[in-house]
Amino acid sequence: PATEAIQRTDDETGPAVPRVLDLTLRIGELLLAGGEGAEDVEAAMFAVTRSYGLDRSEPTVTFTLLSISHQPSLVDDPVTASRTV
């Protein structure tokens, strides 16, 4: 199924961004648990955030931690979420 783009407002760090980051972490956790390599999991996480319109995101995957940061603009503070696996 096709994903819906996030409706952007003046406050891009509204409730939609944390939900997308949480979804991205959950997908990454499932892929990592299923045996995918860290590089493939990072690529998939990046693709999820891009599909929701979060272009300025950076996933990081190790064997014990998944994290993702999104910075709405160069002057805004980044929003970061992480999961320990």
TrEMBL record:
Major place of residence: membrane
Keywords assigned by UniProt, alphabetized: Cell membrane, Membrane, Transmembrane, Transmembrane helix
GO cellular component, one term: plasma membrane
Cellular compartments annotated: Cell membrane
InterPro entries: ThrE-like_N, ThrE_Dicarb/AminoAcid_Exp
Pfam families: ThrE
Molecular function GO terms recorded: transmembrane transporter activity
Transmembrane segments: none
Membrane topology: Multi-pass membrane protein
GO terms, biological process: succinate transport
Threonine/serine exporter-like N-terminal domain residues: 22-74
Family: Belongs to the ThrE exporter (TC 2.A.79) family.
Name of the protein in question: Threonine/serine exporter family protein
